[in-house]
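In the design runs reported in the main text, the only information available to the sequence generator was the tokenized backbone. The following block is the verbatim input for one such run; it is reproduced so that readers can re-run the procedure and compare outputs position by position.
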């Protein structure tokens, strides 16, 4: 067993109990098989989130013997069937399931839970057909038909999960979707991949959700043998591999949806034939289990329902990976579609990244040391708050091998504090609008159209003297104050916001407020003394 296999196995075994704690394991309970602990145990929620039933993958790993658990076959199998049936029972009359609030008919909850159930049921058909006798099929049939009639165009990982779920369900007569729906969704999905290798996630690439997409493509390929899935995976792998910094880390804060993790299953499966994918697995998960690894900061909800599920699914496939091969690393790179600008030190000891579509947010990854970071600015005038750190097409970029210039208006942002009245209003609106409410909430919490109306900002980054020179300018705004931004991004994404040690690092621009009565014009040189 290789060191990587041992690391994966040790992590899986150490975390197994934590994940199974999320499930109601009492066979006499009316919620037997439910993975939403806040619902069945704490009684804090009056409904269960169906997306959490992806815990099925963990149960399946125990049942199949991929985890070294001393488990009774009879008990394990009863838990597996109960988890499938709990999902089936939560499917509404029209095929929808809920995730964040009742009456939601959430597309991601439907897509991800369908994929998990269909994958596990296919395994049972081959390995444990007696389990199928206890499955309650009507809800699963409705779920499959519901996913076939829905689409998600702005969060590609969700569409990939739905596509994989449909392709897997098509192989099971009792839950097969309408004829032709798989190919219809597949054509649109594969056509949506950007030539640079990424899939759109709310306006740009996102490493975490891109690897979730790769997980789904591995399942889709297993169900269909469609070569488009492997070709799309290889393009995505090349994109990711080009963006590892000198410290072996990805430039997390450039992500469109602010994730700071990746999941391994799709990469591991691709690693059986793609040396670059195998290299990525080694680079990103070689430190699995160490306190500083990014998985250490993932919260229980996301760890239990798909990050850990992705990891345990790797266990029987790690040994099949080919030897990893590192990519050629160009000194400079400009990915215009993604808005990513990259510059490497001539000695390979540092890598600078800037995100042009996030106001020029800057990261300098250093070999053997923490990164140097600059997250742009926040500007406050009275109760109004603007930020430069916002994924947007309103930013304009000019780039070449030695420089990047980003200009545009800052974005108005705000916070939404939950409370009983708001939640009551949400439930009433959901009861009336169902899935039609979701685009309205995304518009308010995520996309915020028309928000680019604040003071104009300009950032110029230039390679100079073996380092970088950064020049920032903000137009005059009497009474307003600019402050270097913290690492947090104010765009709402549920799986983002995990703690990072980067939050403790001072920004390149230093601290303290800057009055904007006469505007702002500042320059910073890194490393200090490197400028001409």
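Verbatim output:
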């Amino acid at each position: 067993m290789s060191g990587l296999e041992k690391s994966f196995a040790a992590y899986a075994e150490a975390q197994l109990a934590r994940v199974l704690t999320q499930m109601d394991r009492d066979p006499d309970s009316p919620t037997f098989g439910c993975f939403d602990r806040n619902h069945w145990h704490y009684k804090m929620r009056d409904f269960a989130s169906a997306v959490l039933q992806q815990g099925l993958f963990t149960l399946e790993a125990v049942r199949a013997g991929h985890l070294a658990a001393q488990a009774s076959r009879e008990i394990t199998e009863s838990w597996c069937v109960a988890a499938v049936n709990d999902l089936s029972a939560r499917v509404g009359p029209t095929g929808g399931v809920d995730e964040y609030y009742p009456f939601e008919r959430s597309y991601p909850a439907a897509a991800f839970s369908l994929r998990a159930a269909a994958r596990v049921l296919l395994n049972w058909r081959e390995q444990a057909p007696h389990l199928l006798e206890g499955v309650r099929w009507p809800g699963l049939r409705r779920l499959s038909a519901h996913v076939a009639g829905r689409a998600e165009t702005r969060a590609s990982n969700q569409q990939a999960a739905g596509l994989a779920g449909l392709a897997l369900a098509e192989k099971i007569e009792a839950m097969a979707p309408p004829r032709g729906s798989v190919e219809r969704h597949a054509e649109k999905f594969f056509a949506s991949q950007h030539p640079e290798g990424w899939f759109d996630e709310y306006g740009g690439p996102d490493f975490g959700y891109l690897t979730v997409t790769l997980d789904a493509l591995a399942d889709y390929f297993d169900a269909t043998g469609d070569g488009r899935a492997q070709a799309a995976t290889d393009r995505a792998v090349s994109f990711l591999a080009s963006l590892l910094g000198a410290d072996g880390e990805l430039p997390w804060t450039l992500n469109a949806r602010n994730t700071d993790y990746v999941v391994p299953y799709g990469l591991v499966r691709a690693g059986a034939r793609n040396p670059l994918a195998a290299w990525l697995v080694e680079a990103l998960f070689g430190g699995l289990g160490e306190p500083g690894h990014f998985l250490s900061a993932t919260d229980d909800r996301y760890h239990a329902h798909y990050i850990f599920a992705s990891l345990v699914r790797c266990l029987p496939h790690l040994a099949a990976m080919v030897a990893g091969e590192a990519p050629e690393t160009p000194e400079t790179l400009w990915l215009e579609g993604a808005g990513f600008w990259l510059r490497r030190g001539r000695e390979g000891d540092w890598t600078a990244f800037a995100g042009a579509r996030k106001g020029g947010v800057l990261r300098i990854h250093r070999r053997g040391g923490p990164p140097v970071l600059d997250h742009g600015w926040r500007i406050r005038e009275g109760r109004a708050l603007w930020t430069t750190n916002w994924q947007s097409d309103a930013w304009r970029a000019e780039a070449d091998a030695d420089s990047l210039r980003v200009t545009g208006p800052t974005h108005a942002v705000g916070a939404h504090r939950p409370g009983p009245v708001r939640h009551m209003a949400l439930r009433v609106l959901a009861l009336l609008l169902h899935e039609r409410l979701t685009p309205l909430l995304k518009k308010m919490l995520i996309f915020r159209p028309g928000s680019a109306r604040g003071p104009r900002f300009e950032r110029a980054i230039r390679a100079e003297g073996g380092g970088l020179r950064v020049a920032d300018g903000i137009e005059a705004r009497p009474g307003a104050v600019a402050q270097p931004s913290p690492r947090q991004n104010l765009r709402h994404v549920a799986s983002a916001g995990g703690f990072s040690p980067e939050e403790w690092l001072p920004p390149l621009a230093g601290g303290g407020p800057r009055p904007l009565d006469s505007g702002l014009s500042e320059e910073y040189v890194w490393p200090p003394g490197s400028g001409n």
